[in-house]
Amino acid sequence: MIEQLSTYAGDIDNLILLMTVLVGFWFFAAEGMFFWLIWRFRAKPGVKSQYLEGHEPHVMKWITWPHGLILICDVFIIIGAVQVWYNVKQRLPEPDTTIRVIGQQWAWTFQHPGQDNELDTPDDIFTVDDLHVEVDRVYHFLLESRDVLHSFSVPVFRIKQDAIPGRAITGWFEATGTGDYDVQCAEICGIGHGVMAARIHIEDSEQHAAWIAASSAAQ
């Protein structure tokens, strides 16, 4: 129910909604049939119970037909999930900017490019627990961990990507609105996991340029 502030947040929410509707329908259908059968075939005086082995045609149709329909629903879920996964995790658009995100017990370090918009140059800007990005701009992030497993999560973007020691994982996002929002670690990473929180500041072009200028001057 929180805001959608990335270009693919709506796709992820729609996939979750599709799964909820399809699975929810069959859940309530199965429960309804279950309780109806309990009531319909309840013990009655003078009525002998039936012994069913499970392969009688009039019984099997209540298994095979719903099973086939559920498999069709599964196909829609799988197709939707693969499309969303590919667009979010595999299809990396050309970046306007690249940043580095480093997880450690128990803080996030963010490496922003300076005024040259190039990472790993002398004017890079380092911050702890504060990430500054510009709206309507494609970002690649290089995700690393200095110690244990962490998970870089930005709920308004619908991002959740594990950070694995010894690996640099590339992801991307494009913010669609401005404001200050939560960054979380979504992987239990030790006793201080609960306090490993940060903020992402999504700014318009003027605000972001002013922040880069001020941060560069302060170095």
Characterize this entry briefly:
By secondary structure, the chain is of the alpha+beta class.
Q: Any idea of the CATH topology of the largest domain?
A: Immunoglobulin-like
Per DSSP, the total helix count is: 3
Q: What gyration radius follows from the Cα positions, in whole Å?
A: 26 Å
Euclidean distance between termini CA atoms: 40 Å
For the largest beta-sheet, the strand count, sense and barrel status come to: 5 strands, mixed
Please write the string of helix (H) and strand (E) elements.
Answer: HHEEEEEEEEEEH
Number of strands: 10
Query: CATH superfamily of the largest domain, called what?
Result: Cupredoxins -  blue copper proteins
Q: Helix content range of the residues, please?
A: 25-40%
| Binned strand content | 25-35%
- pLDDT < 50 runs, ≥5 residues: none
Mean pLDDT: 92
Which architecture of the largest domain does the CATH hierarchy give at level 2? Answer: Sandwich
CATH class bucket of the largest domain: Mainly Beta
- Secondary structure category: alpha+beta
> Order of strands across the widest beta sheet?
3-2-1-5-8
What form results from the Cα inertia axes? Answer: elongated
Number of folding domains? Answer: 2
Please characterize this protein's 3D structure.
This protein is α+β, with helices and mostly antiparallel strands and 219 residues long. It has 2 domains: 9-90; 97-218, Cupredoxins -  blue copper proteins (Immunoglobulin-like). The chain contains 3 helices and 10 strands. Strand 6 and strand 7 (159-163) form a beta hairpin.
